[in-house]
Amino acid sequence: MGNTFLSFALLIIFHFSMPTSSMKLTTILTDQSALLALKDHVIHDPENVLTTNWSASAPVCNWFGVSCGSRHRRVTALDLTGLGLVGTLPPHLGNLSFLSLLYITNNSFYGRLPAQFSNLHRLKYLSFGNNNFGGEVPSWLGSLTELRRLFLYQNNFKGVIPFSLGYLSKLEFLTLFENQISGSIPSSIFNISTLQNIYLSYNKLSGSIPSGPHDLLSLELIDFSSNNLSGHIPKDMFDYLPNLKELYLSVNLLSGRIPASLFKCKELQMISLAYNKMEGSLPIEIGNLSMLQYIYIGRNHFEGKIPKQIVNLTLLVDFDCSNSNFTGSIPDNLGNLRNLKILTLANNSLTSSRMSFLFSLTNCRVLENLLFGINSFISGELPRVVGNLSSSLEEFSASACNIRGSIPSEIGNLSHLINLELGGNKLIGQIPTTVGGLEEWQSLSLEDNKLEGSIPPELCHLNKLAFLFLTNNKLSGPIPACFGDLTSLRQLFLDSNMFSSSIPSTLTKLNYLLILYLSSNSLSGPLPIDIGKWQVLTSLDLSNNQFSGDIPTGVADLKDLTHFSLSNNRIMGSILESFDELLSLEFLDLSRNNLSGEIPKSLVKLRYLKYFNVSFNRLEGEIPDGGSFENYTIESFKGNEALRKDKLPTQEDMIPLGTWRRFSYHELRQATDGFNDSRLLGNGSYGLVFQGNLQDGTVIAVKVFKLELEGAFKSFDVECDVLCNTRHRNLVKVISSCSNDLNFKALVLEFMPSGSLDKWLYSNNQYLDILQRLNIMIDVASALEYLHHGNATPVVHCDLKPNNVLLDEDMVAHLSDFGIVKLLREEVSMIQTMTMATFGYMAPGDTSNQTPCLFFHFQCKRSMCITKGIIYVKI
Ligand SMILES: *[C@@H]1O[C@H](CO)[C@@H](O)[C@H](O)[C@H]1NC(C)=O
Ligand SMILES: *[C@@H]1O[C@H](CO)[C@@H](O)[C@H](O)[C@H]1NC(C)=O
Ligand SMILES: *[C@@H]1O[C@H](CO)[C@@H](O)[C@H](O)[C@H]1NC(C)=O
Ligand SMILES: *[C@@H]1O[C@H](CO)[C@@H](O)[C@H](O)[C@H]1NC(C)=O
Ligand SMILES: *[C@@H]1O[C@H](CO)[C@@H](O)[C@H](O)[C@H]1NC(C)=O
Ligand SMILES: *[C@@H]1O[C@H](CO)[C@@H](O)[C@H](O)[C@H]1NC(C)=O
Ligand SMILES: *[C@@H]1O[C@H](CO)[C@@H](O)[C@H](O)[C@H]1NC(C)=O
Ligand SMILES: *[C@@H]1O[C@H](CO)[C@@H](O)[C@H](O)[C@H]1NC(C)=O
Ligand SMILES: *[C@@H]1O[C@H](CO)[C@@H](O)[C@H](O)[C@H]1NC(C)=O
Ligand SMILES: *[C@H]1O[C@@H](CO)[C@H](O)[C@@H](O)[C@@H]1NC(C)=O
């Protein structure tokens, strides 16, 4: 206020006393008051720049960030970049009529841009980048026709790109990335013949790219990536962009082929089309773009071969064609690409005879990342020549490529390797001892192979190793005691191997361990007494071993633990009261041990606990009440003879009521148009199945039991019993049941949109390929395996046939119709299994001359049912 008044007073005095130079002074004072207005609008000035330096007693032209013209002394530039200022911009700045540069970059200004700025007709350089400005991108920007650079990036601008920007006929840089701008790209901006760089990435732009030809001789960079652009890239887009060097169109919804006009851009150094829906091949003309350094075309639907012309691109640094549909062999002369640093071929259908491409790649002496995993047709052994790959190699990723044979010891030569991925192959033999030399190693993935022998102690030298994945191999021997030296370890997966002996006491030295999986081995002995040292552990799975002794009290110190399984061991003693301190727990499985005593009441405090299982122990007393315990079913507690059951949910409530949606007869009637025939999906052994549409749009299947049939009541009970007590991805899920005493009983089931397997097998117009058949087979076998072994009471389906196998939208099979299952309760199991010794299931032979292509067959032997999926495929 004071300043403004003073300026005003001065202004009047000068007006009267010095009339000749009044205009000049007036305008200098205008500039001063505009800047003081800005100072007033700044509410936070962390470096006190404006507060201390912008003083009315000093000439404006000496103020920090201000430059003036040498003759007229008017403010020509205001650069306040990176001062951490917070506030708004006052309209007064629109009075700085000589301003040619206004840089407000890297502050925290907010609010809208005042329309008065449209008076700044001399502005050439304008940046509001990296602030919190909002509102629409103003269309008056189009009147600042002297603009060369317009930077609005990293703000919260909304709305569309104004068509008027096309009037900025001298614009060279248009930079709008990281805003919330929507709508389509106006064709007008391609009319700006002076444009050099357009950055529109990370917005919400949609629609298609304006069609060409765009006659922009200066244009060097187009960045439209990370938007929602769709449609084809216009054919003529690149017709007259002879100087284009960088093209970024990745992460959009673009479709169609790469337009031929692109290959006219001989200066191109960067092509980024990744994450789109583009198709067709990578044209051989790619080899003509001899300046190319970066090609990113992964995550599209490209197909065909990688053109051999690619090896002419001698400047190429990075080539990524991953996650597409490329076929044919990997070129054998990629070694010509002497500048290649990153080669990503992963997740295609590429082939290579004996991995011959690796020999040539040894010539790429600066190669850092080589990824060719998930190419199931590669196959062959890993040649010893991998040891001759570039010594700069940091990543070698070849998972799921059908690699056979053993890991060559030469891998130990790759002294800068950080990440090695060879999971999901068919590797045999031992882990080579030479790995001990790979001091930079941080991640080693060898899971899902057939590696054997013991872990070489040399592995313990890798003191940067953070991730070790050895799951599902045939590794044996003890866990090396020297593992305690791997102090960087964060995740250790040794599960599903043949490790024996006890957990070495040194393992608790691994203070940073987050995940430890040791399940399904032959480990024994007590749990580490100082288990509490694993202070940041979030997941601990020790299930399916022979661990014994008590649960150490230190467990209570594992405050971050969310997942804890000790299932199927020989753990004794009681469940510690202090488990109630493990407040992060979501999953706790103590089933199948020798635990005794009571379940501590305090466990009800564990409010995130979603899964709790103490079944098959020797627990006694009452099941605690309340908290998350309200949600557990009998499954969690069964097999504990002395556990008092009166509090347990009754059969009707077996799926916790809270999670059930209740339906009235009326609702179901409405959903199925009064059980209309047109809604009929099928006819089960004891009921009709209707499709129902609930008012909220959910589609359900309603199985209405034919109560007039003898056995239907029992069937309802049995089906309820089975479905309510079993949960498996390949069983049809029950949503609710509805029963009004005597005359209506129904089950509300998950709707399976793809119908029954029967329908698919005998249809003339629907067809399942071999892979789908195999998957269905596996799904059904998994369901049976679960029914037979996954529960205390084995369940035998007894009516397995294609029309009881239902398919969801992803063609995952779900077994249904449990109306005549047999529950092999312990007391009768012997007798029943005897009679079932030759029991088998087979789909009824068909009547037409079309042989069913899929049979199921399994046998029950002794007290165990063994599931054997046998597929007869008709060719
Ligand atoms: C204001 O900053 C400018 C540029 O850094 C400097 O030359 C001038 O001396 C400063 N004035 C005051 C009063 O601090
Ligand atoms: C803005 O700040 C970022 C991060 O501190 C920095 O990288 C960038 O160069 C700055 N921009 C300008 C124009 O100073
Ligand atoms: C581009 O400029 C030409 C000539 O200046 C004009 O006729 C045309 O309408 C403009 N197109 C767009 C989309 O602005
Ligand atoms: C992207 O566009 C599609 C249609 O082309 C639309 O369905 C989707 O909602 C859009 N996504 C965003 C984030 O705007
Ligand atoms: C690409 O190069 C080949 C030979 O080097 C030439 O015949 C062809 O015309 C070129 N294609 C284009 C589109 O320039
Ligand atoms: C790959 O090609 C096959 C057959 O040409 C097609 O069915 C499949 O959808 C394609 N996959 C992708 C990811 O484009
Ligand atoms: C690739 O280079 C070779 C030799 O330098 C040349 O003969 C061939 O024509 C080039 N191919 C293309 C497509 O440019
Ligand atoms: C492989 O690529 C396809 C198609 O882009 C993608 O859907 C799939 O998730 C990828 N698989 C992996 C394991 O990345
Ligand atoms: C029981 O489960 C329901 C549904 O999953 C959930 O909303 C509720 O919070 C759970 N109750 C407790 C006490 O955990
Ligand atoms: C110019 O800016 C406007 C606000 O946009 C003020 O209201 C005017 O007082 C100011 N003019 C002068 C001469 O300072």
Automatic annotation (TrEMBL):
<dbReference type="GO" id="GO:0016020">
    <property type="term" value="C:membrane"/>
</dbReference>
<dbReference type="Pfam" id="PF08263">
    <property type="entry name" value="LRRNT_2"/>
</dbReference>
<dbReference type="InterPro" id="IPR008271">
    <property type="entry name" value="Ser/Thr_kinase_AS"/>
</dbReference>
<dbReference type="GO" id="GO:0004672">
    <property type="term" value="F:protein kinase activity"/>
</dbReference>
<feature type="domain" description="Protein kinase">
    <location>
        <begin position="675"/>
        <end position="875"/>
    </location>
</feature>
<dbReference type="Pfam" id="PF00560">
    <property type="entry name" value="LRR_1"/>
</dbReference>
<protein>
    <recommendedName>
        <fullName>Protein kinase domain-containing protein</fullName>
    </recommendedName>
</protein>
<keyword id="KW-0677">Repeat</keyword>
<dbReference type="InterPro" id="IPR013210">
    <property type="entry name" value="LRR_N_plant-typ"/>
</dbReference>
<keyword id="KW-0732">Signal</keyword>
<dbReference type="GO" id="GO:0005524">
    <property type="term" value="F:ATP binding"/>
</dbReference>
<dbReference type="InterPro" id="IPR032675">
    <property type="entry name" value="LRR_dom_sf"/>
</dbReference>
<dbReference type="Pfam" id="PF23598">
    <property type="entry name" value="LRR_14"/>
</dbReference>
<keyword id="KW-0547">Nucleotide-binding</keyword>
<keyword id="KW-0418">Kinase</keyword>
<dbReference type="InterPro" id="IPR055414">
    <property type="entry name" value="LRR_R13L4/SHOC2-like"/>
</dbReference>
<keyword id="KW-1133">Transmembrane helix</keyword>
<keyword id="KW-0433">Leucine-rich repeat</keyword>
<keyword id="KW-0808">Transferase</keyword>
<feature type="binding site">
    <location>
        <position position="703"/>
    </location>
    <ligand>
        <name>ATP</name>
    </ligand>
</feature>
<dbReference type="InterPro" id="IPR000719">
    <property type="entry name" value="Prot_kinase_dom"/>
</dbReference>
<comment type="similarity">
    <text>Belongs to the protein kinase superfamily. Ser/Thr protein kinase family.</text>
</comment>
<keyword id="KW-0812">Transmembrane</keyword>
<dbReference type="InterPro" id="IPR001611">
    <property type="entry name" value="Leu-rich_rpt"/>
</dbReference>
<dbReference type="InterPro" id="IPR003591">
    <property type="entry name" value="Leu-rich_rpt_typical-subtyp"/>
</dbReference>
<keyword id="KW-0472">Membrane</keyword>
<keyword id="KW-0067">ATP-binding</keyword>
<dbReference type="InterPro" id="IPR011009">
    <property type="entry name" value="Kinase-like_dom_sf"/>
</dbReference>
<dbReference type="Pfam" id="PF00069">
    <property type="entry name" value="Pkinase"/>
</dbReference>
<dbReference type="InterPro" id="IPR051809">
    <property type="entry name" value="Plant_receptor-like_S/T_kinase"/>
</dbReference>
<dbReference type="InterPro" id="IPR017441">
    <property type="entry name" value="Protein_kinase_ATP_BS"/>
</dbReference>
<feature type="signal peptide">
    <location>
        <begin position="1"/>
        <end position="22"/>
    </location>
</feature>
